[in-house]
Design brief:
41% helix, globular, alpha/beta, seven-stranded mixed beta sheet
């Protein structure tokens, strides 16, 4: 493969070096770039990719319908990937070095058994380009608010562009067939319930109802009803608190996002529920009170592995006798979690600093080792997240002019397109999964 071809006429986004220093900088690492070229050939062969070069050339013959990786600036792409692996791959997309007419199809192909892309004898080279997460992004009590702000305080208006009117930023649960509008079956831990063979019926019009179905399922799991004292860790924009308050529960909900705090309070006041739902700007470690139920939706991913014991100790400390903890969590297989737990990824660098997606096993073992809580139910809904992300991604892409009008540049837009597509591909391949989990205390069980 030659890497000296002239760039195509495809417009390249302007990269502000002050805003995006590592995207603006193109490294010069010829030996590593040569290694990246060999890995690209291997990936194209093993995954059946169509790699298009400037001028209409192909890296190698590809089957019809193959996922497309269209390289606009091959040299820059290879040097970025050669220097920093998957971080460079993401930054190269932000910079406009490559594109794909079907980004999810391409990333799904690459995310299938990713450990096989690098030859076994060359995996020792990983230590030369894989970075460790920086200490300043660890989700300590001092750093957590800054980490949260980098994502959730971008702009309430930005999130409103692609979320549905419930402003729910977590997986919905869709019906799975015309004759089956109920949720997939549940099973006691450790055997998670298999999803029916049908594809979730995910539509933009049906997204609000599917979000309410998710919330209701979690509240039912925690047995939230009239008079329940409920703690929510991770407010979002307040939809779960509103739904619980409408059941007659008394809700305290915690957030570290200033923008979410303001909008959640406004929505609760507009619904006339200020006597039943209180939003606090508070780290989970500082939670006070005793509660009959604790719920948390896709917040544990932001906690970080070093602080999982603190997180579960907090749940145990605030839970009243006989109480129940219901969590919704993105998960990954345990071996993959261990392999990635000390790796600085593109997602950590640009999207969710300080976090780590746990495994169900890690949740179970951490709770058992540090608390009286035991995992008693685990239900799985991964394909529903793939569909939720598809709907978000389509709406985000359709509304790119409005994203620009809010002051977000083309590099940001490409970053978020890649983030949403990357996440969707993770769920489509099973690299990521979604669980609703129930934790109770041994002494509280009949």
């Amino acid at each position: 493969m030659t890497t000296t071809a002239s760039p195509t006429a495809t417009p390249t986004p302007f990269v502000d070096p002050a805003r995006w220093p590592d995207v603006a900088r193109v490294p010069d690492v010829p030996l590593r770039a040569a290694a990246a070229a060999r890995l690209l050939r291997r990936a194209a062969s093993r995954r059946g990719l169509r790699v298009e070069l400037p001028g209409g050339r192909l890296l190698r013959p590809a089957p019809p319908g193959a996922p497309v990786l269209r390289l606009h600036h091959p040299r820059d792409f290879l040097h970025r990937v050669g220097e920093s692996g998957l971080i460079g791959f993401g930054e190269s997309y932000q910079a406009g070095d490559w594109d794909s007419p079907d980004l999810v199809a391409l990333l799904t192909a690459l995310a299938t058994a990713p450990e096989t892309l690098v030859p076994g004898g060359a995996r020792w080279l990983r230590r030369f380009y894989v970075q460790r997460p920086p200490d300043e992004e660890l989700s300590t009590a001092a750093n957590a608010r800054r980490n949260v702000g980098r994502h959730y305080d971008l702009s309430n208006e930005l999130f409103a562009l692609f979320l549905d009117p419930t402003m729910s930023y977590s997986s919905a649960l869709f019906p799975t067939g015309p004759a089956d509008a109920s949720l997939p079956g549940s099973a006691p831990h450790p055997g998670p319930a298999p999803l029916p063979g049908r594809t979730p019926l995910a539509t933009h019009d049906g997204l609000p109802a599917a979000q309410h179905r998710k919330i209701d399922r979690l509240l039912d799991l925690a047995r939230v009803g009239p008079g329940t004292r409920l703690l929510e860790i991770g407010t979002g924009w307040g939809e779960l608190a509103l739904r619980a308050a409408a059941r007659g529960a008394h809700v305290v909900t915690l957030t570290l996002s200033e923008q979410q705090l303001a909008l959640a309070r406004h929505r609760i006041a507009a619904a006339g529920q200020t006597d039943r739902a209180e939003v606090r700007l508070c780290d989970y470690r500082a939670a006070e009170g005793r509660y009959d139920a604790v719920v948390s939706v896709e917040m544990i991913e932001a906690v970080g592995r070093p602080f999982w014991p603190d997180y579960f100790a907090t749940l145990d400390r605030v839970l009243a006798p006989g109480g129940r903890v219901a969590l919704q969590a993105i998960t990954m297989p345990h071996d993959r979690m261990l392999a990635s737990s000390r790796t600085y990824t593109w997602i950590l660098k640009y999207i969710f600093p300080g976090g780590l997606v746990p495994s169900v096993r890690a949740i179970e073992e951490t709770a058992a080792r540090h608390t009286r809580l035991r995992l008693t139910r685990a239900d799985t809904y991964g394909p529903h997240y793939a569909e939720t992300l598809r709907l978000w991604r389509e709406r985000f892409t359709e509304r790119s002019p409005q994203v620009a009008a809010l002051g977000f540049d083309e590099v940001f837009r490409r970053m978020w397109e890649l983030y949403l597509a990357h996440s969707e591909a993770g769920f489509r391949t099973g690299y990521l999964d979604l669980h609703q989990l129930l934790l109770t205390r041994d002494e509280d069980r009949p």
